[in-house]
C-alpha cells in the first residue's frame, strides 16, 4: 500500500490540475467567483491529488490526556495535500450501532501544506465518549487548523442526529446542523467513486482487491448500505435517488444473534471466529439431503439448502447422548427454567459442550446466511431497476473477505456475470463524509473546485479585462 499511496500522490500546486488532460481547467464566471467568495461561513475543500494514506504513516494519535476511549481508528486517513483553507467543522453519522466521525486535521510533524481527513468510530452506546472526543477536537485540533474559538460546527446525520441533538449542542456549545441520512450516503459515495484513487474495488477469490480508478460517469447505480439494517438506494444523478427497498436482516442481526449464540465479545471477535469456523457443521447442504448434487436443477452438493438446518437434529442427538450417560453429564436446571448449557468450547451457554459444532461454525453460518440474503435481494432490486453497478457500503462489511466474497459471488452468480459488485475502503463512512461535504458550497469535494482566494480574484480580474477588450 505504501508505494501505491505514494504513486497516487500528485504534487502540490496548480500543476496537479494540468496533469489531468481529460479534465480541462474550469473557467469561472465573475458571478460564480463573487458568490463563492462572499458566501458566509463556507469553506471549500480541495481534493486535488487526494490519496489514501498508508496506515504506517497515519497521523500520530491525538493526545487526549491519556484517556482511554473504546474507539476504532484503523481506517486509513485520506491525505489532502492541496487543501489549505481553514476547516472548522466536523461531521458525525450517528446510527443504531455505531457513530462514525470525520474530521480534518493539519499535518502535525510535516512541513507539507494540506492536511488529512481522519475517520473514527464509537459504539452508539458510547455517545458520551464521542462527545468528549469532539470537545477535544474543538479545543485542540480545530485551532491547529486556523479556526477560531466558537467557530466549530457539527454536521450531523443518521437517527442519532435527532435523538442526541440537544445533548451535543449543550455539551459542545456549538451549532449542530442536521442533514438527511440517505442524501448524505449518496453524496459520500459519489465523492469516493469520483475523487479518491484506490478507494473502490471489486472482489473475487482470485483477484481479491482489484481497484477501479476514479471516474465521472457513474450513474445510474444501486447503493446497498449494510448498517444495523439494510437500505437500498437507486441513484440516478447527483442528489437524485430513491430508496427502493431494504431488509431488517442486517449487521445488527449478526451482531445481536452472535452475541447470544457464541461467546464472542465484540464484532471483530465474531468476524475472527467466522474466519476459522466451518458452516457445514450447522448448515444443511444439498448433499446432506440428496447424498450428492441435485444436477437436474443445477444445485451442487455443497450448496447451502438451509442455513442452520442441521442444528436441531444434532443438538437433540447430543442431548440424548448426555441423558444416556447419566445425571453427572446433565446440566443443572437454570433459574429461568430454560435449558441452558455450560459450554467450554464455544463460550456460549446455549451450545451444549459436547455438540458437534462450535461458536465459530455458527458465526460463519450466520455471516453467510445474512450476506447471501442481502446479495440476493440486491440482485433482485438491481434487476427490477435495470442497474448493473452495485456498490456495497456500511460498517457491516468491514473489509471482511468472506462477507465481500459472498456478496460479490451472489451478484455474479444471479446476474450470470452481467452485474458488478463494488466495495470501498471507507465503506462505513459514506454518510459522515456526505455530511462533511454538505458544509461546502457548490463544487465542494470536487476536483474542479477553486480554493485559493487570490487565484479566484486574479481570474475575476482577467475575465473582466477580457470582457472590456472584446467590447
Ligand atoms: P448504523 O449506522 O446502523 O450504526 P453501520 O453502517 O455503522 O450502521 O453498521 C453497523 C454494523 O456494523 C453493526 O450492526 C455491526 O454489524 C457492524 N460493525 C462493524 N464494526 C463494529 C463494531 N466495532 N462494533 C459493533 N458493530 C460493528
- Name the structural class: alpha+beta
The count of DSSP E runs of length 2 or more, i.e. the number of strands, is: 16
Taken from the alpha-carbon principal axes, the silhouette is: globular
- Fraction in beta strands: 15-25%
Distance between the termini: 55 Å
How does CATH name the architecture of the largest domain?
2-Layer Sandwich
Low-confidence stretches: 1-43, 57-73, 333-340, 448-454
- How many domains, in number, for the residues? 2
Query: Which ligands does the model contain, each kind named once?
Result: adenosine-5'-diphosphate
Helix content: 25-40%
Biased composition (Basic and acidic residues): 326-339
GO cellular component, one term: nucleus
Protein name: Pantothenate kinase
Region (Disordered): 1-29, 319-354
Tell me what you see in this structure:
It is a single chain. This protein is of the alpha+beta class. The chain has two domains: 11-15 and 27-194 and 430-470, ATPase, nucleotide binding domain (Nucleotidyltransferase, domain 5, 2-Layer Sandwich); 200-282 and 326-424, ATPase, nucleotide binding domain (Nucleotidyltransferase, domain 5, 2-Layer Sandwich). It is built from 15 helices and 16 strands. The strands form three sheets. Strands 1-2-5-4-3-6-7 form a seven-stranded mixed β-sheet, sandwiched between helices. The longest helix has 26 residues, at 359-384. The relative contact order is 0.15. Residues 72, 95-98, 123, 158, 227-228, 251-252, 254-255, 267, 394-396, 398, 428 line the site of adenosine-5'-diphosphate.
Keywords:
about 475 residues; alpha+beta; Nucleotidyltransferase, domain 5; 2 domains; seven-stranded mixed beta sheet; 15 helices; disordered N terminus; binds adenosine-5'-diphosphate; Pantothenate kinase
Amino acid at each position: 500500500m505504501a508505494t501505491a499511496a505514494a504513486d497516487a500522490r500528485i504534487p502540490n500546486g496548480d500543476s496537479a490540475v494540468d496533469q489531468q488532460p481529460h479534465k480541462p481547467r474550469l473557467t469561472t464566471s465573475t458571478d460564480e467567483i463573487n458568490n463563492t467568495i462572499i458566501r458566509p461561513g463556507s469553506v471549500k475543500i480541495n481534493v486535488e491529488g487526494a490519496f489514501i494514506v498508508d496506515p504506517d504513516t497515519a497521523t500520530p494519535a491525538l493526545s487526549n490526556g491519556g484517556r482511554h476511549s473504546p474507539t476504532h481508528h484503523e481506517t486509513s486517513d485520506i491525505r489532502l495535500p492541496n487543501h489549505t483553507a481553514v476547516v472548522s467543522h466536523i461531521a458525525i453519522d450517528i446510527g443504531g450501532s455505531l457513530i462514525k466521525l470525520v474530521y480534518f486535521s493539519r499535518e502535525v510533524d510535516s512541513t507539507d501544506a494540506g492536511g488529512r481527513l481522519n475517520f473514527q468510530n464509537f459504539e452508539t452506546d458510547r455517545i458520551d465518549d464521542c462527545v468528549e472526543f469532539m470537545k477535544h477536537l474543538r479545543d485542540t485540533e480545530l485551532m491547529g487548523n486556523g479556526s477560531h474559538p466558537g467557530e466549530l460546527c457539527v454536521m450531523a446525520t443518521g437517527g442519532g442526529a435527532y435523538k442526541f441533538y440537544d445533548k451535543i449542542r449543550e455539551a459542545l456549545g456549538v451549532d449542530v446542523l442536521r442533514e438527511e441520512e440517505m442524501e448524505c450516503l449518496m453524496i459520500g459515495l459519489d465523492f469516493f467513486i469520483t475523487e479518491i484513487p484506490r478507494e473502490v474495488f471489486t472482489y473475487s477469490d482470485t483477484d481479491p482487491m482489484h481497484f477501479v480508478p476514479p471516474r465521472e460517469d457513474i450513474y445510474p447505480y444501486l447503493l446497498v448500505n449494510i448498517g444495523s439494517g439494510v437500505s437500498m438506494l437507486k441513484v440516478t444523478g447527483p442528489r437524485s435517488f430513491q430508496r427502493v427497498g431494504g431488509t431488517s436482516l442486517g449487521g445488527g442481526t449478526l451482531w445481536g444473534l452472535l452475541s447470544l449464540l457464541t461467546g464472542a465479545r465484540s464484532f471483530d471477535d465474531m468476524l475472527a471466529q467466522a474466519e476459522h469456523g466451518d458452516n457445514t457443521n450447522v448448515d444443511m447442504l444439498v448433499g446432506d439431503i440428496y447424498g450428492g448434487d441435485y444436477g437436474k436443477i443445477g444445485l451442487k452438493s455443497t450448496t447451502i439448502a438451509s442455513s442452520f438446518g442441521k442444528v436441531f437434529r444434532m443438538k437433540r442427538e447430543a442431548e440424548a447422548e448426555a441423558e444416556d450417560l447419566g445425571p453427572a453429564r446433565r446440566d443443572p436446571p437454570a433459574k429461568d427454567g430454560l435449558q441452558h448449557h455450560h459450554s467450554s468450547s464455544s463460550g456460549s451457554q446455549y451450545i451444549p459442550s459436547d455438540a458437534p459444532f462450535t461458536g465459530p461454525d455458527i458465526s460463519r453460518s450466520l455471516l453467510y446466511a445474512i450476506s447471501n440474503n442481502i446479495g440476493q435481494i440486491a440482485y433482485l432490486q438491481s434487476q427490477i431497476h435495470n442497474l448493473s453497478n452495485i456498490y456495497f457500503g456500511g460498517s457491516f462489511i468491514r473489509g471482511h473477505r468472506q462477507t465481500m466474497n459472498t456478496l460479490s459471488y451472489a451478484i455474479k452468480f444471479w446476474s450470470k456475470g452481467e452485474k458488478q459488485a463494488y466495495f470501498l475502503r471507507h465503506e462505513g463512512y459514506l454518510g459522515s463524509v456526505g455530511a462533511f461535504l454538505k458544509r461546502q458550497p457548490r463544487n465542494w469535494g470536487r476536483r474542479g473546485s477553486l480554493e485559493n482566494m487570490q487565484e479566484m480574484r486574479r481570474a475575476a480580474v482577467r475575465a473582466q479585462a477580457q470582457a472590456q477588450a472584446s467590447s
